[in-house]
Write a structure and sequence with these properties.
332 residues, alpha/beta, 8-stranded parallel β-sheet, two-stranded antiparallel sheet, 35% helix, globular
Length: 332
């Protein structure tokens, strides 16, 4: 079996138990949450400590903007993605925001932020809402594409989420198992469009913990129909597939954490995330060890393409990006 595990830690430094877990070759990544973060220097020191143990680990965070940004103290408070759509220079602003986000994340030693959100805002999903760029598929793809261009210019790979679209399902997959009853043609025509239009630009995709019963009885992240036939086959996507957090309620249909990660990798994911539950992460790790799992070679493309260091705020491009977003009243 091919694939690996991304997990988390409890605090702002590594414990002996963390160090032991991170040395396991089946662990391929670590994601930081707000509880792991105090200020830029502490995050940089933590990332360097992790890399001293495992230089090859992918280090990630959710730094979308709006209400989903874990790096706050000492970082720019980014706007919600819905903020761009009405501005006359929306694409330039989205590009500047993507560059600024990526630059600040890379500066503290992380490889990637799981961004951008490609879901559409159907005014139905409270968990998506203003995280989406727009309700119109073409407009969402246009602005997300500009945001990705900014990320790439800074040296960060982009992850589009949550394939094939979470915006129509009302339930929150963190606490429930959402369903979207629409037909595959309807989904293709609307929610899949940003993924289809940006498939050659995206480095990675994260599927939704949403069941689309007219297409498959399994949530998209556990579905070979969605990941192999549609995402890989129909859209021609050749990048990395990350599962969404397998500790979320929307993933529990697949069984315990060991069964969930095997189901996700078996469907086509390259890395399974198990967060906020160390016992579940260890169960998933044991399942991968017993299955003889090997890391996917494509994961290497998600590594940072820029040096770390905290001198970025002196660069003319950083100052220009901040000024552009401030003049548009998108940041303070």
């Amino acid at each position: 079996m091919q694939g690996s595990l991304m997990l988390d830690i409890a605090g702002t430094w590594l414990t002996p138990e963390d160090r032991h877990v991170l040395r396991q070759p089946e662990v391929g990544g670590l994601i930081l949450f707000a509880r792991n973060i105090e200020h830029p220097r502490q995050v940089l020191d933590l990332c360097r400590a992790i890399r001293a143990i495992r230089p090859d680990l992918l280090l990630a965070v959710d730094q979308e903007g709006g209400r989903v940004q874990r790096l706050r103290r000492g970082f720019v408070r980014l706007p919600a993605m819905a903020s761009f759509a009405e501005h006359p220079h929306a694409e330039a602003l989205a590009r500047a925001c993507g560059w600024l986000m990526a630059t600040e994340v890379l500066a503290v030693g992380l490889d990637l932020s799981f961004a951008p959100v490609l879901d559409l805002n159907h005014q139905r999903s409270a968990v998506i809402g203003t995280r989406a760029f727009a309700a119109d598929p073409a407009r969402a793809a246009q602005l997300a594409g500009a945001f990705i261009d900014g990320m790439h210019a800074a040296g960060m790979a982009a992850t589009g989420k949550h394939f094939p679209g979470h915006g129509y399902a009302e339930a929150d997959s963190h606490v429930a198992i959402p369903q979207d009853e629409r037909s595959l043609p309807a989904i293709r025509e609307h929610d899949m469009q940003p993924f289809a239009r940006l498939s050659s630009k995206l480095d990675a995709v994260m599927p939704a913990h949403v069941i689309f019963p007219q297409v498959d009885a399994q949530p998209a992240g556990f579905s070979r129909r969605w990941l192999q036939e549609i995402l890989r086959g129909e859209l021609g996507f050749a990048g990395v597939i990350f599962s969404d957090d397998l500790s979320m309620a929307g993933a529990h249909v697949a069984g315990d954490a060991g069964a969930r990660i095997l189901a996700a990798l078996g469907a086509g994911c390259d890395m399974g995330l198990v967060c906020n539950d160390r016992a579940a992460a260890e169960l998933a790790l044991c399942a991968l060890q017993q299955a003889g799992a090997r890391p996917a070679p494509t994961l290497a493309r998600m590594r940072r393409r820029a040096a770390d260091g905290l001198d970025h705020k002196q660069r003319p491009q950083w100052l220009a990006a901040v000024r552009l977003l401030r003049d548009a009243n998108l940041i303070d």
